[in-house]
Design brief:
The protein has about 290 residues and is of the alpha+beta class. The protein has eight helices and nine strands. It folds into two domains: about 5-80; about 90-275, Aminoglycoside 3'-phosphotransferase, Chain: A, domain 2 (Alpha-Beta Complex). Helix content is about 40%, strand content about 10%. The longest helix is centred in the last third of the chain and has 29 residues, at about 215-240. It binds adenosine-5'-triphosphate (ATP) and magnesium ion. Adenosine-5'-triphosphate binds near residues 40 and 65. One of its GO terms (molecular function) is transferase activity.
């Protein structure tokens, strides 16, 4: 019998364990690893996220951390997933097509484990600025960036940082992951070394390894254009309301970057649709191990 997340206290401290600082992103500060655990600052949605992680565990999904409880300093304690995550500017190994297709399969397993979870009360992370166009189908991660995927032996084995988990749709989660991993963004914003990456081929590989259905493939290009607009409005609202890292990102031009992405998505809508649906591109083509 598992105790409710909000009644779970973590007191299995090992006083000899070494405290290692973890590389944090733009918003969260003070993340550390202690032994086989990770400590993150608690936030108002922590227990809702913890209940979702409990569900994933109960479904046999092994690609997410377990919520172990709150420690005596009030931090969330999660299991550490062994492996490597990308740096803020992703290293060249992140371009691997073998990694990309393993991520497609991992995300599919997350979707399958999540569809049986329904939490009508699951809180959205932001005020309801720019509401979603479709009713939610599931709770999902919604921040599957290279920095939030744990890689072992060249394969995606885990997802961390469920801070933005929320009620959403299969298409929204897939499109968001594709945006980060293909990546679907303007040429000017590609990471160094990614300039010649075939984003269309990568989108097809991700869709095939995930098993995205044709109807969602058809909808994806237009959906992604709309999602960029919503993302712009949400980031702006967060910068204004929450300040901190959000305001810093906004000041550094994240809003303009999102607008450039939207423009790129508009210009390439037809090419994206062809890449996803063209029958001449054989389904389930193999990732090139040399890419
Ligand atoms: N459970 C975990 N297992 C293994 N590594 C983890 C785990 N949680 C976090 N990490 C590592 O710590 C890094 C930062 O953690 P996390 O992604 O949760 O915070 P963050 O990205 O800094 O948050 P934000 O994006 O809100 O600023 C991750 O990129 C990953 O390398
Ligand atoms: Mg992160």
């Amino acid at each position: 019998m598992v105790t409710r997340p909000d009644c779970r206290h973590f007191d299995a401290e090992d006083s000899n364990a070494v405290v290692i600082e973890l590389p944090t992103g733009d918003v969260t500060e003070g993340m550390v690893r202690i032994g086989s655990t990770v400590r993150r600052p608690a936030h108002p949605r922590s227990f809702a996220v913890a209940a979702y992680l409990d569900h994933l565990d109960s479904q046999g999904f092994d690609g997410s951390p377990r919520f172990l409880g709150r420690d005596s300093q009030g931090r969330d304690v999660l299991t550490f997933i062994d492996g490597t995550c990308a740096a803020q500017i992703p290293e060249s190994w992140v371009r691997s097509e073998v990694l990309l297709t393993s991520l497609g399969r991992l995300l599919r397993r997350l979707t399958d484990a999540s569809l049986s979870y329904w939490a009508a009360e699951f809180p959205f992370p932001e005020s309801r600025v720019a509401p979603d166009p479709d009713p939610p189908e599931l709770v999902s991660h919604m921040d599957v960036t290279p920095q939030n995927v744990v890689v072992r032996d060249g394969l995606a084995v885990g997802l961390v940082d469920f801070d933005l988990a929320r009620p959403t749709t299969v298409l929204a989660e897939f499109a968001n992951t594709a945006m980060h991993w293909c990546p679907l963004m303007a040429d000017a914003d590609l990471w160094p070394g990614w300039e010649t990456t075939d984003r269309f081929r990568r989108l097809r590989l991700l869709a095939d390894s995930y098993g995205l259905d044709d109807e969602r493939r058809r909808r994806l290009p237009a959906f992604a254009v709309g999602a960029a607009g919503r993302s712009w409005a949400r980031m702006k609202a967060r910068a204004e309301q929450d300040g901190g890292g959000w305001a810093r990102m906004w000041a550094e031009g994240v809003g303009d970057k999102i607008m450039r992405r939207q423009e790129w998505l508009r210009e390439n809508s037809a090419a994206l649709e062809r890449a996803l649906l063209d029958p001449d591109r054989t389904r389930d083509q193999k990732p090139d191990p040399n890419h």
